[in-house]
Amino acid sequence: MARPKSDTKRNDIMTAAIRVIAEQGIGASTATIGKAAGVSNGALFTYFETKAALLNQLYLELKARMATMTTVDVPGANVPVENGAREQLRLVWYAMLGWARERPLERLALAQVSVSKDVTDETRALAAKPYAEVEALLDRCRAKGAMRDASPAFLAKMVLAMVDATIDSIAVEPEAADKHAEIGFDALWRAIH
Amino acid sequence: MARPKSDTKRNDIMTAAIRVIAEQGIGASTATIGKAAGVSNGALFTYFETKAALLNQLYLELKARMATMTTVDVPGANVPVENGAREQLRLVWYAMLGWARERPLERLALAQVSVSKDVTDETRALAAKPYAEVEALLDRCRAKGAMRDASPAFLAKMVLAMVDATIDSIAVEPEAADKHAEIGFDALWRAIH
DNA sequence: CCTATAAAAGAGTGATCAGTCTGTCAATAT
DNA sequence: ATATTGACAGACTGATCACTCTTTTATAGG
Question: Where in this chain does the record put each HTH tetR-type domain (chains A, B) (predicted)?
Fold first, then answer.
């Protein structure tokens, strides 16, 4: 098969794209991304057919990375609310805060890519798959509460939004990080339970 | 003073920018916006020095429009929570839902412009001013509750996020609009009270 | 080792962009 | 009425863009 594509090079491009897009937004040029990855202008297009394809892949990658840092400890079992769903959700909550703290560039890049018109509905649907467990957990949390008629998408979106708000609060007042994290989680629990 | 600038033309450009950016995102060209406004390429730049300036003005305008539809009925008086803060917040909640329903293009455009790197922190701070009353109301709502230590920015962001989530739910299931609106508001109240 | 194949580099390409320039025309002040 | 000013249209400009093409080079299979 002649010369194979290099997984590390593909990864370099992704990593560079995350940084460059976090800094400059979606408008960043493929040339800039390529240079940041140490890859020629042309080579970038042997790994991604178009810029739109790159953005779609990036979206999937970022969502997947976030999912692996977030869902790893969530058991899929159908634990009743009384017996630990709250604690499970708390784990997810802190995992997401941890992701945002440890991967700030990924978070910024995801915020940019998420609003891109180049990211298709198909891609968005695909990216939601790794969160099936989290959605199931959210479902269990609200099943008997005041939000029993709300949709899973509503809850998922709210969790993300509340994470964002919490992260912002922590950024403004870092010494109160733990307090904000608890306040945020309690608010989430009150809202959805 | 020779020939004065036309307020209606300036407004045409703004309106066109809202539509074009809602459809195409921030990447939309000034030429496209000008054409949609029925204004020549050059004329656009007599009203806005640069594209960045246009985006900043657009952000201010959109935030202001939303504020006027949202804050008009919120009394600034320091009503105690027990005597109607909940009802005041409910008014704001439905006003925001109304804005989102009646001005979908403005909402889409705002979502795009909000993430633009061209919109400065100064602009963002300025745009927050018309919401002082709403923030004060939110402050009163949470003053004695579990979120008494959270920041106003946190609450404001949460309200917007929950409006977004509610709008999305309504879009998916329009026949249950009223139900979703109530569920969303109750969740908000539980979260922040 | 040799050949086939595809990756890689980077110059090249046409399109498009934000912003400028020039000539024209409309509104205002006198 | 006329002179002055600046809005206006739209051609123009240089930069930049996504993407391609050509040549070179690395690697896999025989």
Answer: 7-66
Are A42 and A60 found together in one domain?
no
User: How many angstroms separate the CA of residue B115 from the nearest CA in chain A?
Assistant: 7
DSSP B37-82: HT--HHHHHHH-SSHHHHHHHHHHHHHHHHHHHHHTT---S---GG
CA atoms of A20 and A98, how far apart (whole Å): 22
Furthest-apart CA pair in chain B: how many Å?
61
Angstroms from A3 CA to nearest CA on chain B: 37
> What is the average pLDDT value for chain B, to the nearest integer?
92
Q: Which residues touch strand D (CB under 7 A)?
A: A 1-4, 28-32, 41-42, 45, 50-52; B 1-6, 9, 38-43, 46-47
B97: containing domain: 51-192
Q: Nearest nt (C1') to A10 (CA)?
A: C7
Same domain, B111 and B139: yes
User: Is 0.90 topped by the overall pTM?
Assistant: yes
- Looking at the fold, whether B151 and B83 belong to one and the same domain comes out as yes
Interatomic CA–C1' length for residue B42 and nucleotide D3, angstroms: 26
Q: Are residues A36 and A59 in the same domain?
A: no
Co-location of B126 and B170 in the same domain: yes
- Assign B103 a pLDDT band (cuts: 50, 70, 90): very high
Q: Residue A16's closest CA among A32, A28, A33?
A: A33
Q: Assess contact for A58 and A113: CB atoms under 8 A.
A: yes
* pLDDT value for A84: 85
The predicted model gives A74-102 an average pLDDT of 81
pLDDT, tens only, B18-61: 999 999 999 999 999 999 999 999 999 999 999 999 999 999 99
CATH number of the domain to which B11 belongs:
1.10.10.60
CATH number at residue B139: 1.10.357.10
3-state class (DSSP) for residue B27: coil
Q: Choose the weakest-confidence range: A121-130, B29-38, B69-78, B163-172.
A: B69-78
Mean pLDDT in residue range B163-188:
94
B5 touches strand C (CB under 7 A): no
DSSP secondary structure letter of residue A4: P
C1' of nucleotide D22: residue with nearest CA: A42
> Same domain for B29 and B57?
no
Residues A56 and A45 in one domain: no
List all nucleotides in chain D with at least one atom under 7 A from a protein Cβ. Answer: 4-12, 16-22, 25-29
pLDDT at B78: 53
pLDDT recorded at residue B27: 97
